[in-house]
Amino acid sequence: MENIEERLDARVGLLIRDSGTGWSWGHRADERFLMNSTAKVPLCGAVLAQVDKGAMRLTDGLDVRAEDMVEYAPVTELRIGDTMQVGELCFAALDMSDNAAANSLIDHLGGPQEVTAFMRQIGDDVSRLDRREPDLNRFETGDPRDTTSPAAAVDTLERLLVGDALSPSSRAQLTEWMTPGGVTGALLRAFTPDSWRVADKSGSGSVTRNIVGMIAPPQGGPYFVAIYLSEAEADFDTRNAAVVAISAAVVELIASR
Fold it and tell me: Are 95 and 177 in contact (CB under 8 A)?
């Protein structure tokens, strides 16, 4: 971690936790980092919580409009003028990181503050969502908006995927959406054996790169991981390579336990 921080003049935040034993290892685990698109995990968790309450259905249709398109909308831009189901929008946001899909879901919930309220309800007193895409990716030193900590991100991911924050069917649905890894193939899952299950979500901004995920070996765990790189004045490929290297080290550490 320190080598990457020195080389890129950046901050790296990391937490790994074995949910089976409680063992954990971290670096800057309580410092704040921009969530970027990892915010789409609690966003879709908030949607599923509404489904659990009967206040929303995954089959509800939302209009896909040209005026709602933002940068990086690979799924929704093909459906302009159509309607997409809430479940389809969650899958687009989580698997392909579609930003217009995320905004549609944020608006359907009632705004970013509703995602923050959901995180507070499930015990996350750190993470907060304040803006929509793409504004939530704008980094300013010391700005707490749209941030989390590695420790809080791991806590929330664990509560959503194996805890009691959602119903069993909604936990399974969230895991299913996060399993294909449409844009995360080069990170954590690139280093796991085929017999391991991975559910993850990545994110990035102009000076950031990050990923959160659940890694489930055949025995032990599952493990929950949050990696956040920030303040790296380097191009995307360089930032991505740093998180790839950290991902490889994380999987190696898990495999050695």
Answer: yes
